[in-house]
Automatic annotation (TrEMBL):
PANTHER family (alphabetical): D-3-PHOSPHOGLYCERATE DEHYDROGENASE 2, CHLOROPLASTIC (PTHR42938:SF46), FORMATE DEHYDROGENASE 1 (PTHR42938)
Major site of localization recorded for this protein: plastid
Organism: Solanum stoloniferum
Entry's Gene Ontology cellular component terms: chloroplast
PROSITE patterns in the record: ACT (PS51671), D_2_HYDROXYACID_DH_1 (PS00065), D_2_HYDROXYACID_DH_2 (PS00670), D_2_HYDROXYACID_DH_3 (PS00671)
Catalysis performed (reactions): (2R)-3-phosphoglycerate + NAD(+) = 3-phosphooxypyruvate + NADH + H(+)
Record-given protein name: D-3-phosphoglycerate dehydrogenase
Length: 635
């Protein structure tokens, strides 16, 4: 049994975790620091609290000093920007470096505001040499904005603009540490991507690419290239966001029956355009055509694999204009060879460009294009304008909803809320994993219990972190304090808050946080409260986030690693039985807790594990006679 950490050690661990989020699963996500906003009076920011770095051990001191450096960087950047806004410092125009081709309309907007340097095809060394003379940098996907670039900027670089959606090529952790805002342009290419999806759908169905190549080779093979009709066929759209919904509109016009899977899509919005929201399993098992419009996240990485293809109708046809990594490409080749997948039309690949000898690209039943989803003249001009407006706004001291990181809040707020920030995100992450079915998440309620006056508790950061935990696991939207409410609204999420005064010490800002999701089905029925909502609650103990309630059941587990929840008959030996199954499969158990409502009736066993148990291990747990249901959750 692990010993209880001291408050000193626990708080230190969480301060360190805020600075080392780059070691987490997804290196492209911003650290928790990116949620924090600038003080209204930058010059009065206090760099530390009442504790000096020298009072810590060497490792603790280095982490605290790092926080100091971040705050100093942001403070100096904010003061400079604030003075620019008020005309106190320099009247010279800012310098904006554009490292990849951008539409003329966007360049014209930038030139009206600052000095624009269009230097294309820069080597990493050349970029580092120029960046110290620039206030803003605009890139597409080809330029890598690494930590070395931010270091070379020597604090002058205020904003990086990514002309497009993905930000895999920008080191967000480094950007945040150096006080540099990062913005993108996520909306301008929506129609272009949807149109390309339809183009691939229709050309695949009628073998346009193959018959074109055949004729140019001097052949006339009418009987070989007999296609299939689209009218009356079922199209499953996986990811019903902006692009997915536009594809649906166009597919309906072609006479197709359209279904969709997206845990965040409001059912009423889908019904308004004649689309039925269904579960993931129902979508892939009933569709004649499947069009992918989901982001690439840890949860969706290779989600279309051998197991997924085995559940599809034989002869299904697949279109992907989203992200290459959502498909296991080797598994797709096997599915094509076996006839499970009749054809595929792909615009994106796991590695781009794919190898010249790629079996997938060379497959006779596959139509491919070189990532052309956003490649229309209109979309390129729209992206140029969108990113130019975002960059100019940032240089003016404004923060738009397309910001993917943000400056700092005062350090005293960070110090007090740091462990609660982690708790809020993990509760959101747990809650969304408990949702199943195709109705979509529409209503989330966050309840804060505190001894403090409700008016003195600023919950914006905590609400943003709950939103982050709910949205990010299955979305490419990066949530921060700036865009949390906007992103929730865009996805049809209504997030409400309630503050309950309790009789506890006002020394701590929050006694507990509860997350409720209403009007959804649950993968773990025991997580449902009396009113039918998914409900989980947590507290911070010794600086460490803990899960303290699941539905009506009390538990007490540290929110670290991964979690297995088992509903069982309350009887002796259950801990040993499940523990032995995990041990035999070499799954390390970090902690275990049992909560019950009535002795001898039912109980919830919460088990912390370091690794995800394989399918056979989970099957064995489910076969234990006293186990009524269980679920594995990733933290």
């Amino acid at each position: 049994m692990a010993s209880t950490p001291s408050p000193h050690t626990a708080v230190t661990a969480h301060l360190n975790s805020l600075l080392s989020s780059s070691s987490s699963v997804n290196h492209n996500k911003p650290s928790n620091l990116s949620f924090l906003h600038a003080s209204s009076n930058p010059s009065s920011i206090k760099l530390l609290h009442s504790v000096s770095p020298s009072s810590f051990s060497p490792s603790i001191s280095s982490s605290t000093t790092a926080i100091c450096n971040v705050l100093k960087t942001v403070e100096s950047a904010d003061i400079s920007l604030s003075r620019d806004l008020h005309g106190v410092v320099s009247t010279s125009k800012p310098t904006i470096l554009v490292s990849e081709k951008l539409g003329e309309a966007g360049l014209d907007l930038l030139r009206s505001f600052g000095n624009v340097d269009c230097s294309y095809d820069l080597s990493p060394q050349d970029l580092c040499a120029k960046i110290s003379l620039c206030d803003a940098l605009i890139v597409r996907s080809g330029t890598k904005v690494t930590r070395e670039v931010f270091e070379a900027a020597q604090g002058r670089l205020k904003v990086v603009g990514r002309a497009g959606v993905g930000i895999d090529n920008v080191d967000l952790q480094a950007a945040t540490e150096f006080g540099c805002l990062v913005v993108n342009a996520p909306t301008a290419n929506t129609i272009a991507a949807a149109e390309h999806g339809i183009a691939l759908l229709t050309s695949m169905a009628r073998n346009v690419a193959q018959s074109d190549a055949s004729m140019k080779a001097g052949k006339w093979l009418r009987s070989k290239y007999v296609g299939v009709s689209l009218v009356g066929k079922t199209l499953a759209i996986m990811g019903f966001g902006k692009v997915g919904s536009e594809v649906a509109r166009r597919a309906k016009g072609l006479g197709m029956h359209v279904i969709a899977h997206d845990p965040y899509a409001p059912a009423d919005r889908a019904r308004a355009i004649g689309v039925d929201l269904v579960s993931f399993e129902q979508a892939i098992s009933t569709a004649d055509f499947i069009s992918l419009h989901m982001p690439l996240t840890p949860a969706t990485n290779k989600v279309f694999n051998d197991d997924t293809f085995a559940k599809m109708k034989k002869g299904v046809r697949l279109i992907n204009v989203a992200r290459g990594g959502v498909i296991d490409e080797d598994a797709l080749v096997r599915a094509l060879d076996s006839g499970i997948v009749a054809q595929a039309a792909l615009d994106v690949f796991t590695v781009e460009p794919p190898p010249k000898d790629s079996k997938l690209v060379q497959h006779e039943n596959v139509t491919v294009t070189p990532h052309l989803g956003a490649s229309t003249k209109e979309a390129q001009e729209g992206v140029a304008i969108e990113i130019a407006e975002a960059v100019v706004g940032a240089l003016n001291g404004e923060l738009s909803a397309t910001a993917v990181n943000a400056p700092m809040v005062p350090p005293e707020v960070l110090s007090e809320l740091a462990p609660y920030v982690v708790l809020a995100e993990k509760l959101g992450r747990l809650a969304v994993q408990l949702v199943t079915g195709g109705s979509g998440i529409q209503s989330v309620k966050v309840v804060y219990k505190s001894a403090r006056d409700p008016d003195s508790l600023d919950t914006r950061l905590l609400r943003a972190m709950v939103t982050k935990g709910i949205i990010e696991p299955i979305s490419d939207t990066i949530i921060n304090l700036v865009n949390a409410d906007f992103s929730a609204k865009q996805k049809g999420l209504r997030i409400s808050e309630e503050r309950i005064i309790v009789d506890s010490s006002p020394e701590y800002p929050v006694e507990s946080i509860q997350v409720q999701i209403s009007n959804v089905q649950s993968r773990f029925a025991s997580a449902l409260s009396e009113n039918g909502n998914i409900s989980i609650e947590g507290k911070v103990k010794y600086g460490v986030p803990h899960l303290t309630r699941v539905g009506p059941f009390s538990v007490d587990v540290s929110l670290e690693g991964n979690l297995i929840l088992c509903k069982q008959v309350d009887q002796p030996g259950m801990i040993g039985k499940v523990g032995n199954i995990l041990g035999e499969s070499n799954v390390n158990v970090s902690f275990m807790s049992v909560g019950r409502t009535v002795k001898g009736k039912q109980a919830i066993m919460a088990i912390g594990v370091d690794e995800e148990p394989d399918k056979d291990t989970q099957k064995k747990i489910g076969e234990v006679s006293a186990v009524e249901e269980f679920v594995f959750l990733k933290l």
